[in-house]
Structures are given as C-alpha cells and as structure tokens.
Amino acid sequence: MIYTITLNPSIDYIVEVDELKLGDLNRMKRDLKLPGGKGINVSRILNRLDAPNTALGFVGGFSGQYIEDKLHAEHISTDFVHVADDTRINVKLKHGEETEINGQGPNISTEEADALVAKLSQLNKEDVVVLSGSVPPSLGANFYDRLIEVCKQTGAEFVIDTTGPALLKALADRPLLVKPNHHELAELFSVVIASREDIITYGRKLLELGAQHVLISMAGDGALLITPEEVYHANVPKGTVKNSVGAGDSMIAGFTGTLVSTHDPLEAFRTGVASGSATAFSDDLATREKIDELRPQVTIVTL
Predict the structure, then answer these.
(1) Is 221 considered catalytic here?
(2) How many whole angstroms separate alpha carbon 122 and alpha carbon 11?
(3) What pTM did the predictor assign?
(4) 72-106 per-position pLDDT tens digit
(5) Rounded to an integer, what distance in angstroms lies between the CA atom of residue 182 and that of residue 185?
(6) Nearest partner of 182 among 197, 193, 171, 168, judged by Cα
(7) Which member of 86, 249, 283, 292 is catalytic?
(8) CA separation, residue 263 to residues 34, 176, 180, 267 (Å)
(9) What is the pLDDT of residues 16-55, one digit of tens each?
(10) Which secondary-structure segment (H or E) carries 126?
(11) Which of 122, 150, 172, 204 shows a CA-CA span of 20 to 30 A to 185?
C-alpha cells in the first residue's frame, strides 16, 4: 500500500475575474473548488492509475469534511486525523496573472499529532509513504523527521517532496525518491547551474548523500532520472500548458505508483513524465486517458 501524507491540506478556491479592481466590487467570471494539498494530489493521480493508496493527514471542520467527501466521491481511501480547527482555504485569483492567498492552516495539538504518528506505526516493509507539502506552523519544522523515524522503525520506504535543509537532512535515511526541479537543486547546494552537466553533477550528489532515485524536472527541457547505475533523459510531450499546479505531484505519483507495481525505474520514469505533462495540459489534475495518450510520446535516452 502507498500512503500519502498531507499535513496541511486545503480547499483550493479558484476564482477568475476579467478585471480586478481593488477597493471595488468584482464579479466572478467562473469559480472552482478542489481538494488541495500535495499529498492529496498524489493520491488522486495514484487512484487514476489504479495504484492502491490511502490519504493520511489532518482535516477539520466543514472544509475538512468537504475534502473527505470529494476524495470519497473519487473512491479514494482516507484515514485522516480529525482536528478541532478548520482546514484552511486557499484562494487562487486569476486575472491575467494568478494571485494566491494561502491560509496558515489549523493549530495541531500534541494529541492530534501523536494520533497520526500512531497510524504510521502500523505500517510494514511492504508499504511506501509519500511525504509532501507544507507543515502547519504548530507542528514545528522537524515534524517530518519524526515521521521518517517511524518509517525507519516499521521498515516502510518513503518518498519526500520538500526542499532546502529538510531535504538534505532526509537524505541520510535513504528516501526511495526525491524530485527537485533544477532551480531547487541550485538553491539546495547554493550554486549557479548553467548546463545539463551541472544538473547531473549535483543530482548525483543527492544519490551520494542517500537518495535511491533522483528525478529532476527541467520544464520545457524535459526531465532527468538519476540512478546509481545510469542517467536518463526524457523529453516533454507536446501540448498547451494550462496548469502548473499539481504537475510535480503528478510526476511523483506516476513514478512511485509504477515503481511499486513493476519495480522498473524506466517505466516508472515514463509514466511519471506523462502524468506530470498531462496535468500541465489540463485544467485540473490529469485523467487516466490523458496520461495513457501521452505515455507513448515520452522518449527516454541514456546519457
């Protein structure tokens, strides 16, 4: 089983207006409400790829109930910890450019945090945990460390999608997958990256520090998969980019779900790239049909 963890989920309330007039009345052109959070995005794509998974994390109040209802409507298994405070609502305001107003998230009590740790303690070495997204301020900056320690104790593998010191610290515990983009990779090592060779050099450093697989997205220049044996490059399928939100989560879901089921890193890479591209070309997260359509367009070469 794959378990996704979203510590600070949200309702993403997408509002589109023709023109934004500050201090005046504005009328929506259209709006959309979606269950948000990086781990939840991963669960939704895993589900569309028929990869068994359960969404974990914290939800509370009417907004948390909305997220659970939406996931259950998609036949996604959930086992959230229910908290006293309301789950946040993030506003994505589209008026030519997109303006985001993100909520802080609920206050998580010690008892509520312990309840999530207790759920993870039931895992075993056949399970994979996907840790991704922001941490509510009340949990403190090191809460992922606590979850990773539980994964180690149970033998479960883990994927981590974070950046900066938290990612560097997690590498020693041998994550199954990390997925920085080329900008995040440069920031991670405080360097300027000027070429694909530079990306490969620093991607290999992530392997040396403990990662088992390194995925690096490079926008229109495709993606790299770095393993202890080889470096692979995949092109980006052709399409019109509509949505950048969730593309990275979709890539992680496609890779992880396929790797767990096939143990084939190259097939996982192909599905990951197709999944990320399919979401980028969609208004919401990718459909299974769109992923299947794009998968044959992904060409992988060994560098």
Answers:
(1) no
(2) 29
(3) 0.91
(4) 999 999 999 999 999 999 998 988 777 889 998 89
(5) 5
(6) 193
(7) 249
(8) 32, 12, 22, 9
(9) 998 888 899 999 998 989 999 999 999 999 999 999 999 9
(10) none
(11) 150
